[in-house]
Amino acid sequence: MSVAASALRTRLHVARHIVPAATPGFSVMCNSYRFPSLPKTTPDSVAGNASASDTTPLTSPPVLFNHANGFHKEMWEPIIARLPSTRSGSPMYAFDCRNHGDSAVLNSSVLEKTFDWLTYAKDTLSVIDQLVTEKPLGIGHSFGANAILMAEILRPGTFSAIVAIDPTMFPAHFKIQAPLDDHPLANLALRRRDHWKDRAEAKTKLLEKPFFRAWDPETLDIYLEHGMKEVSGKDGSLGVTLKCSKFQEAITFASDGSAIHDAFERLGEINIPVYIIAGEHSEINTPDLLQMKLEQCKNGSLDIVKDAGHLFPMEKPVETAAYVSSFMESLWGSHRSEQAIEGIRSR
Questions:
Q1: What is the C-alpha separation between 346 and 266, in angstroms, rounded?
Q2: What is the reported pLDDT for 47?
Q3: Which segments constitute the AB hydrolase-1 domain (predicted)?
Q4: Where are the alpha helices (DSSP H) in the chain?
Q5: Which of 10, 73, 87, 116 has minimal Cβ neighbours within 10 Å of its Cβ?
Q6: Which one, of 31, 36, 37, 24, lies nearest residue 63 by Cα?
Q7: For residue 95, which of 113, 112, 115, 119 has the smallest C-alpha distance?
Q8: What are the residues whose beta carbons fall under 8 Å from the beta carbon of 231, sequence distance 6 or more?
Q9: By CB neighbour count within 10 A (0-12 exposed, 13-18 middle, 19+ buried), where does 90 fall?
Q10: Dihedrals phi, psi of 37, to nearest 5 degrees
Q11: 244 CB contacts (<8 Å, ≥6 apart)?
């Protein structure tokens, strides 16, 4: 992470909104982002860093971001800060799924013991209805991409276009759902550590794992800052724990709904551009499965991020922003981001 990269994010003006969810009694926390002043250039604005900082502002719609399971809205900030629509003053929004991040804190007394992915899509529509005045570009990662796609399927014409980052959705014959105690990803979530004496200890322990060592340092710091909360033990001792509990992460993996299949089977109902970005070594999307997803799209395109897995937005936020920027420019403008993308592809 460069000093300039961190400076870009800290310049963002962030407003927080509590939005009623699609289900009575639930709320979601949403951040809106703008730049209060627009820097002309930064040291990050070279093609080799694949930044969208050096750009002629384009007229683009608002952008709405949906996070992956186990994560939270602020993890989009290193990407948000580098997108050309941020420079043009277009508003950007990122919200926490009802059982994640600050939304999980808001809903702590009403969180349920099962989770249907379709509720994420319905809450996405609720956020748009109450905060977004134009058809947004929808950007989602994994579970969040599923929610963006399902929101468009539920209400066609909601979005102007969609960026589905390593989307989690499967054909009906892919039988991957299982009870909580028999689901491999849910079991991993339930076994993870979820309490530390402070964020410093949490960082030290997380960095012992290759999973977290692969992350961009800024993204890891954001995860620690915004994905955890202070708690008191029964003995009065202080510590930190995850805002999205490991139980809620686990039941989200073991979703009892149909959206994980419906998003794939109904892709052909989507009439707007759908841009899929996937990691070359994704644990979710094999080359054959990606081709199946692309073939389902009426107006689809696909790029592969080299030397990357399913979590490449956390590992490569600069490169991720470049891919998204290139897609945005193809729809609403033109600048040098395509050259930056070609530079990444050739590495």
A1: 34
A2: 32
A3: 67-322
A4: 3-10, 77-80, 84-88, 101-106, 118-131, 143-154, 184-191, 199-206, 210-213, 217-226, 246-253, 259-265, 287-296, 312-315, 317-332, 337-345
A5: 10
A6: 31
A7: 119
A8: 195, 238, 239, 240, 241
A9: buried
A10: -145, 150
A11: 70, 71, 72, 99, 100, 101, 104, 227
Q: How far apart are CA 344 and CA 94, in angstroms?
A: 26
The structure's pTM equals: 0.88
CA distance 116 to 156: 21
pLDDT in tens, the chain (347 residues): 444 445 667 778 999 999 999 999 999 999 999 876 554 444 344 333 444 444 455 678 999 999 999 999 999 999 999 987 655 678 999 999 999 999 999 999 999 999 999 999 999 999 999 999 999 999 999 999 999 999 999 999 999 999 999 999 999 887 665 555 667 778 888 889 999 999 999 999 999 999 999 999 999 999 999 999 999 877 778 899 999 999 999 999 998 689 999 999 999 999 999 999 999 999 999 999 999 999 999 999 999 999 999 999 999 999 999 999 999 999 998 544 444 444 434 33
Q: Which domains occur in the chain, in start order?
A: 3-176+257-345 (3.40.50.1820)
Nearest alpha carbon to residue 312 among 33, 16, 75: 75
Helix (H), strand (E), coil (C) string for 77-102: HHHHCCCHHHHHCCCEEEECCCCCHH
Q: Identity (one letter) of the amino acid at 14?
A: V
Please classify residue 165 by burial: count the beta carbons closer than 10 Å to its beta carbon, then call 0-12 exposed, 13-18 middle and 19+ buried: buried
Cβ neighbourhood burial of 39 (10 Å; 0-12, 13-18, 19+)? middle
